[in-house]
């Protein structure tokens, strides 16, 4: 989320026509087209964050900037050249890094929380904790994970929370 992303279509010479057909997971379909004989581009129902990376007669790459959760979906590039027709298909899934907090609860236990990540983050502790993380599904494909450190009766002065997610990794120590 928030980054720039490019989808590459076949880089062939003598392009006659290029069409990007975009079917987002939510919202309406969109197309970006280029016709070489008229040196003409066409845009139908596409949001402003989708555009040609450069000039389509030189590079038919599609650019999405910034990427948002609404950018998820199927992207098909169809290209006609003197060499033949070419198709490139992508399925874009957007990763949402969770917002992270580490704090001490009312009983003095360290707590690690990864809020609204997609997919769900994984949390573990050093030293090892016997607690099971709690999971809250927000119904929009994001998940919050909450883990409270329990030291199995040992007195721990400091615990380190480790969070793993495909879009990031994180660790923080806390003493309660």
Short account of what is shown:
Pfam families: V-set (PF07686). The protein has strands spanning 5-7, 15-24, 30-35, 40-44, 50-52, 62-64, 73-81, 84-92, 99-104, 110-117, 122-126, 134-137, 143-148, 159-165, 168-174. The chain has 176 residues and is mostly beta strands.
Commentary on this structure:
The chain contains no helices and 15 strands. It has 176 residues and is an all-beta fold. The chain has two domains: 5-92, Immunoglobulins (Immunoglobulin-like), CATH 2.60.40.10; 99-174, Immunoglobulin-like (Sandwich). It has a five-stranded antiparallel sheet, with no helix packed on it. A four-stranded antiparallel sheet has the order 9-10-13-12, with no helix packed on it. A hairpin with a 5-residue loop joins β12 (134-137) and β13 (143-148).
Reading the helices and strands in chain order gives EEEEEEEEEEEEEEE
**General shape:** rod-shaped
The CATH top-level class label of the largest domain? Mainly Beta
Query: Into which percent range does the helicity of residues fall?
Result: under 10%
Strand order of the largest sheet: 4-3-2-7-8
As a whole number of angstroms, the C-alpha radius of gyration is 23 Å
- CATH fold-level assignment of the largest domain: Immunoglobulin-like
The CATH homologous superfamily of the largest domain: Immunoglobulins
Relative strand content: over 45%
Summarize the biggest pleated sheet.
5 strands, antiparallel
List the uncertain runs: none
Structural class: mainly beta
Structurally, the number of domains stands at: 2
Number of helices in the DSSP assignment: 0
The CATH architecture of the largest domain would be Sandwich
């Amino acid at each position: 989320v928030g980054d720039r992303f490019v989808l590459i279509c076949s880089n062939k010479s003598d392009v006659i026509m290029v069409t990007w057909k975009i079917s987002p997971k939510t919202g309406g379909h969109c197309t970006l087209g280029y016709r070489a004989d008229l040196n003409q581009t066409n845009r139908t129902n596409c949001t402003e964050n989708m555009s040609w990376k450069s000039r389509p007669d030189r590079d038919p790459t599609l650019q999405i900037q910034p990427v948002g959760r609404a950018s998820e979906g199927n992207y098909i590039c169809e290209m006609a050249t003197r060499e033949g027709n070419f198709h490139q298909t992508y399925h874009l899934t957007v990763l949402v890094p969770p917002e992270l907090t580490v704090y001490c609860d009312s009983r003095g236990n360290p707590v690690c929380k990864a809020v609204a990540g997609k997919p769900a983050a994984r949390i573990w502790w050093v030293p090892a904790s016997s607690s099971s993380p709690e999971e809250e599904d927000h119904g929009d494909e994001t998940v919050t994970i909450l883990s409270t450190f329990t030291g199995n009766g040992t007195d721990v002065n400091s615990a380190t929370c480790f969070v793993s997610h495909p879009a990031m990794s994180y660790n923080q120590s806390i003493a309660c």
